[in-house]
């Protein structure tokens, strides 16, 4: 056979093959609706057999890679749709409205969620080529899922079949995945969050402060002083990253924590409101309804009914 004939006989690259294998592996480990923690600490698997209603949640720094179906995340007035062609990067803690758009029992929504390690990102920034300086951008963005990223994700999931190798190999593959994000089109958004004294890092520090003291009566002046910024500069940069003002962000965290206390710990609305820093039960109820779409008691009852339905 001539070299030309041999070349023509080689099967073309099947770009869908990695996605098909990823989907099969996720479906094998995630057999029911919801989040499933894997044997790899940083890796979670998510499955939904049907589209979902919009649901408010606090997203932690992570990568969300859809391999089947699609989902949208709404941050303020912006909507981000991610599917097998695009993955979502959450670079800071953010209150988001999420909704699975495409899912059926035959073709369920399947997603990988990888927690981002700031220390690893800092190390990679020192090794990778420097990115041009830019101002703070949204802490939520979409990037195209390229073949090298799919290849690394597939190697990560294959490790679930060889648990004895996870401790040694998983950190290496996770490092490669973060490197792919950092060297991609929007990698500067992650870089800015770990560069010492960068605008993004300062906003990240304010977010962490609000997270640890969300029940306290924080002032914008106190937050600005904590990162040596003016009030106007903090307000502008914080809203650029999160689409919210610092105090709106704090309010959202309070309401999400109150919801968790009612749903998981069984607290009554008034007790949960007091626990997260509200002095007025009526104000808590109004703001809760505005965020979650129903008064506290009604919304929690509906959530528990949904959980029981899925369990059955």
Automatic annotation (TrEMBL):
The keyword Transcription applies. Pfam families: AraC_N, HTH_18. InterPro entries: Homeodomain-like_sf (IPR009057), HTH_AraC (IPR018060), Tscrpt_reg_HTH_AraC_N (IPR009594). It comes from the Bacteria. Keywords: Transcription, Transcription regulation. Residues 204-302 form the HTH araC/xylS-type domain. SMART domains: HTH_ARAC. This is AraC family transcriptional regulator. It comes from Tahibacter harae.
């Amino acid at each position: 056979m001539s070299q030309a004939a041999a070349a023509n006989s080689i099967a073309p690259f099947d770009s869908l093959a990695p996605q098909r294998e990823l989907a099969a592996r996720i479906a094998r480990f995630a057999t029911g609706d919801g989040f499933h923690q894997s044997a790899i600490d940083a890796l979670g698997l998510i499955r939904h057999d049907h589209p979902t209603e919009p649901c408010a949640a606090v997203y932690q720094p992570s990568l969300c890679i859809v391999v089947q179906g699609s989902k949208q995340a709404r941050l303020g007035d912006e909507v981000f749709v991610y599917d097998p062609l695009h993955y979502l990067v959450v670079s800071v803690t953010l209150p988001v409205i999420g909704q699975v758009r495409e899912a059926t029992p035959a073709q369920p929504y399947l997603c990988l969620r990888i927690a981002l390690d700031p220390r690893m990102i800092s190390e990679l920034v020192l090794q990778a080529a420097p990115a041009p300086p830019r101002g703070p951008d949204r802490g939520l963005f979409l990037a195209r899922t390229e073949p090298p990223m799919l290849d690394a994700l597939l190697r990560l999931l294959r490790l679930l079949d060889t648990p004895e190798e996870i401790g040694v190999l998983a950190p290496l593959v996770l490092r490669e995945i973060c490197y792919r994000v950092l060297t991609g089109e929007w990698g500067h958004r992650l870089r800015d969050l770990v560069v010492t004294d960068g605008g993004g890092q300062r906003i990240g520090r304010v977010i962490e402060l609000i997270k640890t003291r969300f029940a306290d009566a924080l002032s914008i002046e106190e937050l600005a002083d904590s990162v040596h910024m003016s009030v106007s500069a903090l307000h502008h940069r914080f809203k650029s990253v999160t689409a919210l003002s610092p105090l709106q962000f704090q309010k959202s965290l309070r309401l999400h924590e109150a919801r968790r206390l009612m749903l998981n710990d069984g607290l009554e609305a008034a007790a949960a409101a007091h626990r997260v820093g509200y002095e007025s039960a009526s104000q808590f109820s109004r703001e809760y309804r505005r965020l979650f779409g129903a008064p506290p008691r009604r919304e929690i009852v509906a959530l528990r009914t949904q959980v029981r339905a899925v369990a059955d």
